[in-house]
Amino acid sequence: MASFVYAFVALVLGLVVGSFANVLIYRIPRRISILRPGSFCPDCKAPLTANEKIPVLSYLTLGGKCAHCGKRISPRYPIIELVNALGWLGVFAVEGFTFPGVVGCILFTGLLVAAATDLTEGVIPNKLCLGLGIFGLAASFYPFGLEPLESLLGALVGGGLLLIFALLGRLVFKREAMGGGDLKLLAASGAFLGWKLVLVAAFIAVVAGALYGAVYKLVTKKETLPFGPFLAAGVMAAYLAGDAILAWYLFL
Ligand SMILES: [Zn+2]
């Protein structure tokens, strides 16, 4: 029963914070303050009433249209809210309502924002990476989980590894294989993972990105593909199951 209540709380909080994630995704790349003004329609700029700000439900009751100008609201908004809620539920299922669980939820939302801005705007904002990295390092001072030194080393290894990839890509393929945003995102994630698990995260991201990229190229004949979503997936997998993945891999 108790775990049912916890799951419900994780879902509801996940929806509310997912709504805030939408604010971050829209505002950080546009350099708009995340505190003021309050939420507004991106088309007509009309401020939203409390009834129009309920995660997912408002989108459904409004029929996916702005109540002020009637323009279509992107389905991205309820999708981000749902994905964040399900992510938080997933983190809760693995970690429980513990300190690493709460940190994992915040990491999940940060990665979701990074993946979404990379998909929609083609950038991973510096401020987001900086904020995440500082939070990850600060969390390591809590006496369960990573030590601060491991956290710092994770950031250095994560950033350094992608820097090497980026330089190799430029040398071998004569093009930008990886953006600076990817590098900063993996450095920030390394602060949550430590040096071992950040390697696991990078490995998962590169393999998943390469497989998907090969299929994507076959189907669409297009070259570029944002790497941020794969990094986000790799980091989350490493955070939740990295030790098990590492043990399995070393056993092979
Ligand atoms: Zn509007």
Automatic annotation (TrEMBL):
One of its GO terms (biological process) is signal peptide processing. It is found in: Cell inner membrane; Cell membrane. Residues 12-92 form the Prepilin peptidase A24 N-terminal domain. Its EC number is 2.1.1.-, 3.4.23.43. The keyword Membrane applies. Residues 105-213 form the Prepilin type IV endopeptidase peptidase domain. GO terms for molecular function: aspartic-type endopeptidase activity; methyltransferase activity. Keywords: Cell inner membrane, Cell membrane, Hydrolase, Membrane, Methyltransferase, Multifunctional enzyme, Protease, Transferase, Transmembrane, Transmembrane helix. GO terms for cellular component: plasma membrane. InterPro entries: Peptidase_A24A_bac (IPR014032), Prepilin_IV_endopep_pep (IPR000045), Prepilin_pept_A24_N (IPR010627), Prepilin_peptidase/N-MTase (IPR050882). It catalyses: Typically cleaves a -Gly-|-Phe- bond to release an N-terminal, basic peptide of 5-8 residues from type IV prepilin, and then N-methylates the new N-terminal amino group, the methyl donor being S-adenosyl-L-methionine. It comes from the Bacteria. It holds the Pfam family A24_N_bact. The chain crosses the membrane at residues 6-26, 77-93, 99-116, 128-146, 152-173, 185-215, 227-251. It is a multi-pass membrane protein. Its main location: membrane. Belongs to the peptidase A24 family. PANTHER family: PREPILIN LEADER PEPTIDASE_N-METHYLTRANSFERASE-RELATED, TYPE 4 PREPILIN-LIKE PROTEINS LEADER PEPTIDE-PROCESSING ENZYME. Plays an essential role in type IV pili and type II pseudopili formation by proteolytically removing the leader sequence from substrate proteins and subsequently monomethylating the alpha-amino group of the newly exposed N-terminal phenylalanine. This is Prepilin leader peptidase/N-methyltransferase. It comes from Candidatus Coatesbacteria bacterium RBG_13_66_14.
